[in-house]
Amino acid sequence: LGNGASGKERTLAMIKPDGVSGNYTDEIKRIIFEAGFDIVKEMLTELDKETASAFYEEHSSRSFFSHLVTYMTSGPVFVMVLEKRNGVSDWRGLIGPTDAKKAKISHPHSIRALCGKDSQRNCVHGSDSTSSAEREIKFFSMDVISGDIDSEHDEL
Ligand code: RTP
Ligand code: MG
Q: Quick one: which residues bind ATP (predicted)?
């Protein structure tokens, strides 16, 4: 899925509700293009509790899980499939560490330093491995033919 003979990798990126409501979408897209990513597919949608819980099911036993689900369902999210050589780890590097408070100090040019608030409200998501990327791209039914640009505004 997604990783062709070009050596490019696809990853799932998401601007979380605080990023969308804070009007960071255009600035984040500019950062994405400047870093050399292609946006293969994009979709503005809203997660219900069931969808957010399933997306983050690896964290279901964590103390912060119910807060995470409430946060992720608090408004629209902007989901993108990004493509680039080393796309998975390069996107993780661009967003910075999970805790946006720490990001502002240790990674001041990261996206989470730009628009995040704390360890929960960190304004963006990135797949943490190529296998996670594959799962998450399929999760949102965004596994599309290479080079096909398609904007959608669907409800999940
Ligand atoms: P993400 O999956 O959203 O890209 O974030 P991540 O890999 O950097 O961090 P992860 O450990 O996967 O956590 C998923 C999201 O849960 C929220 N969180 N809250 N202590 C807390 O309150 C806490 N810890 C994590 C964050 O929104 C985090 O991005
Ligand atoms: Mg994660």
A: 16, 64, 92, 98, 112, 122
Q: Domain spanning 9-141 has what CATH number?
A: 3.30.70.141
- pLDDT tens for each residue of 77-129: 999 999 999 999 999 999 999 999 999 999 999 999 999 999 999 999 999 99
Q: Is 153 a catalytic residue?
A: no
- Domain extents in the chain: 9-141
What tokens were used for 10?
A: 């696809």
Phi, psi of 148 (to 5 degrees): -80, 110
- From the CA of 92, the nearest ligand is 1
pLDDT-based confidence at residue 149 (cuts at 50, 70, 90):
low
Is the ipTM higher than 0.95? The answer is: yes
9-49 pLDDT tens trace: 999 999 999 999 999 999 999 999 999 999 999 999 999 99
Top mutation candidate among 68, 94, 99, 102 for ligand 1, by most atoms within 8 Å of CB: 68
- How many helices, marked H, and strands, marked E, lie in the chain? 8, 5
Candidates 98, 115, 136: which one to mutate for ligand 1, based on the most atoms within 8 Å of Cβ? Answer: 98
Q: With contact defined as beta carbons under 8 Å apart, do 142 and 31 qualify? A: no
